[in-house]
Design goal:
The complex is a heterodimer of chains A (266) and B (281). With 266 residues, chain A is mostly helical. In chain A, 74% of the residues lie in helices and 0% in strands. Chain A folds into two domains: 196 residues, no CATH class; 65 residues, no CATH class. The longest helix of chain A has 23 residues. Chain B has two domains: 198 residues, no CATH class; 68 residues, no CATH class. Helices cover 72% and strands 1% of the residues of chain B. Chain B has nine helices and two strands. In chain B, strand 1 and strand 2 form a beta hairpin. Classes of the chains: A mainly alpha (266), B mainly alpha (281).
């Protein structure tokens, strides 16, 4: 087994910093496990592996989002390292998923640390405001980039730099039966992403549509794809719209989000 | 849309560029300074800065007051924040910081809660249920083209957020109440679409094969997966999803605990599949 070339370690470290900024701003997608794993696969010469690890991690985390600033596991960094280790060891995508999940969980605390560190810059900004120093306030906000990115870049750099030792240790100390069990578990994890989405969407009111989607895909797997089912979904949504229109807009008063918010502690 | 002009907008003091600068800062910088004390407070002040500079450049006292006010606690959904920032700009331009201070704090704190609820539902939950679930489904089949889907939709979101900034500025405070009524129906229709897709995800992405044989007496071994398939295809994946859904409704349940539970169940199922694997006849 070869260690990861230093150039690739550096590129992936820069990528995770960039992706983290995407996560807290425009969210184009670079922050998602799907992109992170695919880019890792691309750089390490196995895009297919990246796509597979990324897709499963993505499905697992569909409902995992920082609602209201809650801390969630760092599956961005986890996906990068899991994919890299899977490619290095040549052990397949389940191996990558089985590593990406615990790594993401382990890194959770660093997110809390980064958000705490930013309190320093808030206080700096308040002192600047007392002086009427608008430029100082701006710089304080920009400095906030450092905790956000370093809490991701440092672990990814260290993890990949010592990647060979990490993978060797895993192979040595984790028994084969556990590893094969973990590989199976990778297939179950998307259930969590789906269940979380069901919690956040008005499932009780609209469960009938969920059943339609499930039934189409479960009984006609060779006829339907997800895109086909979403076309059916668009039609159902349009029917719902025109029905609710005729019922009168008066009922549709304030409080759009009241009945669809569910609190889940992260 | 982006025709360069130094003409002032309707209110008379702010220019189109001022608002465009605010838009760009809002896109990228709202959460750089996110912290446990004021959450997006620091970022918000950074976002609105071009407006403060334009209005209070030559008045240090007003600038001080505006900076302190805008640094206060703030937290909402990012795409929706444009509506609040736009309203803020209109208020300050019209009234100045001294007269607008109370209205400003009222608008910010009054809107951030409801906007966070709507925004999280539409722009995170439903957006991901559609965009990222479809992309991940395609990627599972090894198709790199899947990555284009989030990018294209993300770029469309940039346009929506641009529109939000200017809409809110032009309509000021009127906007908020009118919008939430319209949004309710749209959100519900989007939820219908979302749940249809989420239902279809269960059989296509959750993998829980139970390919094991159980021998009872002298009869032929019973294959569990074949039996389950006769009852309902994807019965086990559905059961696991429904169980997870139910568990997430429990008070003490967190996503981290659920991941650990799923891993343990997965390891057990994996072992069953290994030890009771059907023997090739």
């Amino acid at each position: 087994m070869n260690s990861i070339p230093i150039l690739i370690v550096v590129l992936l470290t820069l990528y995770v910093g960039f992706a983290q900024l995407d996560q807290i701003s425009v969210q184009l997608g670079f922050y998602s496990p799907l992109f992170a794993a695919t880019v890792t696969g691309l750089l390490m010469g196995d895009v297919g592996m990246g796509l597979k690890v990324g897709a499963t991690m993505q499905l697992m985390t569909l409902g995992v989002a920082t609602y209201g600033g809650a801390t969630v596991p760092d599956f961005l960094s986890g996906s990068i390292m899991g994919t890299a280790f899977a490619i290095m060891s040549g052990q397949g995508d389940e191996y990558g998923i089985a590593l990406a999940v615990p790594i993401g969980l382990l890194l959770t605390q660093l997110d809390v640390f980064g958000r705490m560190a930013n309190v320093i810059f808030q206080h700096r900004a308040e002192r600047c405001a007392e002086r009427g120093d608008d430029r100082g306030v701006e710089i304080s906000n920009i400095l906030g980039i450092l905790p956000w990115t370093l809490t991701r870049m440092i672990p990814v750099f260290v993890g990949l730099f010592f990647g060979e030792a990490v993978v060797t240790a895993i192979n040595q100390y984790i028994p084969a039966w556990l590893m094969s069990g973990l590989k199976y578990a990778g297939g179950l994890l998307p259930a969590m992403g789906i269940a979380l989405l069901m919690r956040y969407l008005p499932m009780k009111k609209f469960f009938a549509y969920y059943i339609i989607g499930f039934a189409l895909m479960a009984y006609l797997p060779s006829q339907f794809t997800i895109l086909g089912v979403s076309l059916v979904g668009v039609a159902l949504a349009a029917i719902y719209m025109s029905n609710s229109e005729s019922k009168g807009a008066a009922a549709a008063a304030v409080g759009a989000a009241d009945d669809m918010e569910v609190e889940i502690d992260e | 849309m982006s025709k360069q002009t130094t003409e002032t907008l309707a209110g008379g003091k702010l220019t189109k560029q001022d608002l465009q600068k605010v838009y760009v800062r809002n896109l990228f910088g709202l959460q750089w300074g996110w912290n446990y004390e004021t959450m997006q407070g620091l970022g918000y002040c950074y976002v609105i800065m071009p407006i403060l500079r334009r209005l209070y450049r030559n008045n240090p006292e007003k600038m001080k007051k505006a900076l302190k006010t805008e640094l206060g606690y703030f937290n909402t959904s990012q795409p929706m924040s444009h509506l609040i920032v736009g309203t803020d700009a209109a208020l300050q331009e019209e009234l100045g910081i001294d007269a607008a201070e109370d209205a400003l704090i009222g608008v910010k704190t009054g809107l951030m809660g409801p906007f966070a609820g709507v925004g999280d539902t539409v722009f995170i939950t439903i957006y991901r249920a559609l965009v990222f679930s479809i992309a991940a489904y395609i990627a599972m089949g090894g198709q790199a083209v899947a990555l284009l889907i989030p990018i294209v939709c993300g770029v469309a979101m940039l346009a929506v957020r641009y529109k939000f900034t200017f809409m809110a500025y032009e309509q000021g405070r009127k906007l908020a109440s009118g919008l939430s009524g319209q949004l309710k129906r749209l959100t519900e229709a989007a939820s219908v679409l979302g749940l249809t897709v989420v239902g279809a995800l269960v059989p296509s992405v959750v993998k829980a094969p139970m390919n094991i044989n159980i021998v009872i007496g002298e009869t032929n071994p019973i294959n569990i997966q074949a039996m389950l398939d006769k009852i309902m295809p994807a019965a086990l994946p559905l059961a696991i999803v429904v169980l997870s859904y139910w568990l997430l409704g429990k008070k003490k349940m967190t996503t981290v605990k659920l991941i650990l539970i799923l891993m343990v169940v997965g390891v057990l199922f994996g072992l069953l599949n290994t030890f009771f694997a059907p023997v090739a006849a």
